[in-house]
Amino acid sequence: MAPTNVPDAVPEIERATLRRVTWRILPFLMLAYFIAFVDRVNAGFAALQMNHDIGLSAAQFGLGGGLFYVSYVLCEVPSNLAMERFGARIWIARIMITWGLVSATMAFVVGPVSFYAVRLLLGAAEAGFFPGVILYLTYWFPRAYRGRIVAVFMVAIPISSFLGSPISAAILNTDGMLGFRGWQWLFILEALPAVLLGVIAFAILPDGPAQARWLAPQQRAWLQDRLSAERASVVDGQAAPARHLSVWQVMRNRYVLAASLIYAGASGASQCLSLWQPQIIKSFGLTNLETGLLNSVPFGIASVLMILWGRSSDRKRERVWHTALPLGLLALSLAASIATAQLLPTILILCLAVTATYTVKGPFWALSTEWLSAGAAAAGIAQINAIGNIGGFVGTYLLGVIKDATGSYPLGLLPLVILSGLGCLLVIGLGRGRAQAAAPARA
User: Fold this and answer.
1) Distance CA 357, CA 350 (A)
2) Where do transmembrane segments lie in this chain (predicted)?
């Protein structure tokens, strides 16, 4: 895998240290995020049976799907600050065990109210995992490597849908086993790995390089010195814009708010498509298994391209256009869905849209962490992810409402077209403004 892609020109200690760090922590974090995302969006496949069984309309399903992000947003910043207080090992393990247990209870919802309640609890349980990991990666990787590292870590999202889609569809076929419906088995079986991985996380994850006994003393010293020097340095000739701010100031900081809006388009589309795409594909009259196989195609393509795009961003040391271009593609592809009502063009459009939502993630998070100082990173990253995920609530809920009102899935995607288009324009404008501000400093 060698995801750090360390150039031959760098010192040997840098190559050896970062490769060892990558292999020791990244595969486990990817696996954990894989399971997290499966548990977050498996309601999309369960809905193929569950909605009828417990009497959910499209609008009610959309509301329940979106309520996850309400509690997720409210608990995001406190969770990230708690990780800094209690340490990554304890807090990441706590998150994983809690969300696994809550996810299993989805098997026992009996109507809209219980569905809403468990989705709210699931959002609260999982809150802080993703921004916590993004913060955790800044403890280990210098700035120049973060675009590709974040992209490699986040490839777990499309892989979770690529592999999880046919698995979820197959589990639905266990319908009637031991008296449970297939959708109930889906929630139970896919929740168990989260609890197990939480226990493993407590045993194997170090809080930071200082506790990494698998690094040689000189490697630990090099990595700590490198990261300390970067935290004390400037970004692009300027001090990091959120440096030395209180939590409240970070939450109101214009860079944090701008990054949140930029992320809302990509995050909203990602969450919305992950939850609704199986029903969109199923609407063409396919079986559950056919739906699962076709649903995996866009995510398989995105899994490859997001890594390549993240590496391109690092190699060229460019973040703004690597963030803006996928957002523009996302807006255009979702808008194009209105022009077709056939299966093949719809799958091609979904491939473009899903790929865009994932290729943007590596460059965007690398850009965001460069905007934040070490002191502001915990609250800033959590706040960006929290506000950005409001797009997940808006997109998921409105798609259900619009589908009930019009009978059209493409019309339900229009709010995401607007949100991702605004994000594209904002990142270009903000990037140009910072470049112009940095020019006198370089001179």
Assistant:
1) 10
2) 21-38, 58-79, 91-110, 116-137, 149-171, 183-205, 255-276, 292-309, 329-356, 376-399, 411-430
Q: Could you tell me the pTM of the whole model? A: 0.70
3-class SS at 415?
Answer: helix
133 touches 80 (CB < 8 A): no
DSSP secondary structure of 106-173:
GGG--SHHHHHHHHHHHHHHHTTHHHHHHHHHHTTS-GGGHHHHHHHHHTHHHHHHHHHHHHHHHHHT
Mean of the per-residue pLDDT values of the chain? 83
CB 170 within 8 A of CB 413: no
- H helix or E strand, kind and range, residue 419: helix 414-442
- Specify burial of residue 19 (Cβ count, 10 A radius: 0-12, 13-18, 19+): middle
Structure token pair of residue 183:
């959708």
C-alpha closest to that of 130 among 95, 90, 168, 82:
95
Please state the φ and ψ torsions of residue 238, each to the nearest 5 degrees. -130, 155
The pair of three-digit structure tokens given for residue 434, joined into one six-digit string: 């910072």
Please report the pLDDT score of residue 118 as a whole number: 94
How many residues can be counted in the chain? 443
Stretch among 80-89, 216-225, 290-299, 398-407 having the lowest mean pLDDT:
80-89
